[in-house]
Design brief:
globular, 406 residues, mainly alpha
Length: 406
Amino acid sequence: MAILPGLRAAVLRIHPARLILAISFLLTYLVWILWAFDLVAALTGARAVYFGREVGNDFYLFHTVGRAVADGRTAGMYELFSDHPHYRDFGYNRPPYYALLFAPLAPLPRVGAFFLWVGIGIVALWWCIRLLGIKRRGLALAAAFGWFPVWCAVSFGQTTLPTLGIIGLTYWLWNKRRPGLAGLTLSLALDKPQVVLGVLVLWLWSWRRDWRALAGTLGGAAALGLLSVIVLPEATWAYLQRLPTFGTMMYQPNFPLSRLQTVDGFFYLLLRPRAEIAVALSLLTKALGLLGAVALWRRYAAIPSVRFSIAVLLTFWLAPYLLIYDHALLLIPGLLLTSQLRVQRWWPSLVAAAGLGAFLGWPLVEKQLLVSPNAVNVNVLVLLAGSAYLAFRLLNSPPDKSFHTN
């Protein structure tokens, strides 16, 4: 028992923010462990115990459209889920060309294809860490797996981690002053255009410097659109017809509002049915976020890592539709800024708040919605407050004194 006082003293010496961050990581690691039992259940044909849903449930969409492409049934690609109890209101909503990516996985059973897709995502995550220039890569990977949205991206079978790799490569090329290739690379993430919104705004703001990046993005988008028209003409027409409905998915009866992690979703859940007030506050918040980003881009014009980090953060202020697993993309500013801001005493507190907010936000919203039509999304609230505090500290510090020189 003599060990206990020493252990207690060691814990008390830990910075409270680091202790909170460690707790959020440990909770997320526990979720990974429990989810592993569900994976074993899926492989043995037993029923999932802890999460009560199919393994890689969102991957079902991608695997199904991949089979449709492989079988030549692309004309009805966007009607495949019209009778599905969960996906009938918001089934496959990516551009037609994106389904080609999953055609090679079609011959595999869904669970086997899911595991292969998870492996591809983890490789993309590791690749992104390397491209960001992080020196302690093993520690960065462990921290990434402690970030709750990464578990969400993997367990749902989503496309977030491959997108993370694409945006990481975009940053690397842009930082190496290859803007055309950077823009061309970013176009590969336009299957879900809202996730690159902040980067596009950055390039538009600095168009004299980054016009080649914009041209590369536009050229890549045109090439992918042409690929859809040539290879999947009927599916392309169906996609264009359904495109206006994608912006209203959050208002569908079956939409998982607890997973919606945007400014629009925050005010909608907080104020519904007062939609006009929610929209006005959303627009005001986005305008303030844009003004703050521009101020930071001007002040840190000579530090590409800061400009790109702020651009990715801005995405989460501007985008109308992002879910909990999309917040895995916040690893980019998190890792880039941690590598330089670790000398600042206030930085661990921001990271700790973000980690705990990400873990608690989704389940707390679900609990609130059980007793009320309105809810406060803690994750979005922490993201907005944390981003604002970050901007305040950076704007009130000389650039040469804010950052650690590697």
